[in-house]
Amino acid sequence: MRLSKKVWLIVVIVIFAIVLGVLFSIYAGQARELVGLNETLSNAQTLLPGLVANREDLEDQLTQAESKLDESQAKFPESVESIEYGEDLFEIADDCNVDLTSLSPSTPTSKKVGAVTYSVSSFAVVVKGNINDILDFIYAIRTGEGFDLPDFPWSADLKGVNIDGSQASITLDIYGYKR
Q1: CA dihedral defined by 59, 62, 67, 72, rounded to 10 degrees?
Q2: Which end of the chain has less neighbouring CB within 10 Å, N or C?
Q3: Other C-beta atoms within 10 Å of 36: how many?
Q4: Alpha-carbon gap, residue 111 to 116, rounded angstroms
Q5: Predicted structure pTM score
Q6: Counted domains in the chain
Q7: Does any domain span residue 69?
């Protein structure tokens, strides 16, 4: 059985129509995908400057936080020194039979004398006891008795003493030198 030219023409046209339909379907799908990708790209490009600025802000905050951490870590040993000074002051008060009722340290600073750097901490101290014991306490601080930190020797400079009966308010600077 031989097919006529018309039948072959119709078969070719149908196959051609099917191929065109499939190609059109694929093209339409790719066109929709391209539109979606362009929208996503546009959204990403819109967000990018904000994200870059946010990243820079976060990097600045990180740098500032690291700087503050370094500053805090640098001050920590000085704070420990103030605690150690306080412990010695309480021991001296106990040895002199006075009650240390108030101890207010300031933030330690550094003072350079020649090639040596000292840690300087200011304290306001209030002690109670009889007058002789208070004078013993003041003398012990002035002469350095009881300053028993082997790794961090220190001395005190009395800045002011106000004795009122059985109570004395003392201000002093403590100079420490780390070996």
Answers
A1: 170
A2: N
A3: 10
A4: 8
A5: 0.52
A6: 1
A7: no
